[in-house]
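Q: Here's a chain of 492 amino acids. Please give me its 3D structure as tokens.
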Amino acid sequence: MISTHLPALQVVIPLLSAPICVILRRGYPSWLLSLFVSWLSFAISVNLLGQVLANGPISYLLGGWAAPWGIEYKVDILSAFVLLLVSGIGAVIMLFAPQSVESEIAKDRISLFYTMYLLTFAGLLGIAITGDAFNLFVFLEISSLSTYVLVSLGTSKRAMTAAFRYLILGTVGATFYVIGVGLMYQMTGTLNIADLAERLPAVAETRTILIALAFLTIGIGLKAGLFPLHIWLPNAYCFAPSVVTSFLAATATKVAVYVLLRVYFTVFGIETIKMMAVEELLLAIGLIAIVLMSTVAIYQNDAKRLLAYSSVAQIGYMVIGISMFTVNGLTATLIHLFNHALMNAALFLALASIYYRIKSVNIQDMAGLGKAMPFSMAAFLIGGFSLIGIPLTVGFVSKWYLIVAALENGWWPVAVLILFSSLLAVIYIWKIVEVTYLKPRKDGAQKISESPLAMLIPIWVLVCANIYFGIDTDLTVSVAEAISQALIGGKP
């Protein structure tokens, strides 16, 4: 009986658990509840993925109202894939959270942190599972509004400014998205995604639909941190509490890319998208992002900010894969979406571990940490290898599939630029490696010990995942290929 309601429980459980954290008003019980909910959500997402792989897409009608009149939760292989990613990352990060949160957030605000975390978590899961374009907007706002609060909880005075900038630009992005949805509703009379997919081709050549696509692309691009709409992202990542940065960097932008895929390939369909000639624009944006943002990352002195600009570059890789509009290109995008989540989570948690000990992630302050914090720095090093694309890491798999897809399209200059951007990644990762491993601690500097085991275990779970999925690619590649085939085939 319960198994039939798993799509609803995936969202309802974290959504209803959030206000309980406020009632508890204490940090440790709130963390225990958040930990339980996160792992329960992960278990549900594993079950849903198994059901989808075995029996095909799941349709859940809220309140028994049939689509398109009622709200439908639709779990296909793409949404199940994203649910697994978000819930899995969230569950591991919650294991890491308590000590880091206690050291960076005021005691009277810790329960508020867990409340906002669960709301963000529920919003991201809701975005992935809903089959209604307007309901997607609702979940988008739930996750966004709670994220603004999470960013503002940072220790720096600039955290509030970063949160305010994020709020303004996030609101602009949401407004653009809802205008695009409104224009589609004007032309089709429906908000159900599957229904939109059936009705849009008849009006695809109208100017209204073209404008709707433009509004949707800009709105989603802002949420994804897509170049040049990324200006909120570096400060948000830099000044937010370390756990918040780790979670957002690994999940929020990936969910936004999911929305872009859903809009382009499920709602509009590949033929309509090709007719609107967006390939060139997406390709140009992606190529500029991977080169320019990687170059900007080289000149950063703050490790968080460095990885933030690197993240914008990585979104560029995903957009390049989308711009090919081929099965191989989409496969590369989906593989990188999954793999970059693992990389970013490991890298930012390693930085969170470092911040826990030295209260800084300025690169010069990290001198000698290779010896003082060997396990945290080794985790960062392996995550950096993955970001570069060293063989036996997930980063290599991502870039290999992207380069192969580019060459199959005859885009050899694109393949060259992808390789060039990887060389740029070597430079900015080496900046940190050089300081931490080759420079000694400053004279008179406080003696530093390794982070607690409770923090190291989640970090190394993610590091091991970076290596495991870099060697055994059967699961990620097979699922990504199945999703790509479904999207290119135009199946809702």
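Q: Can you summarize the key feature?
A: The radius of gyration is 21 Å.
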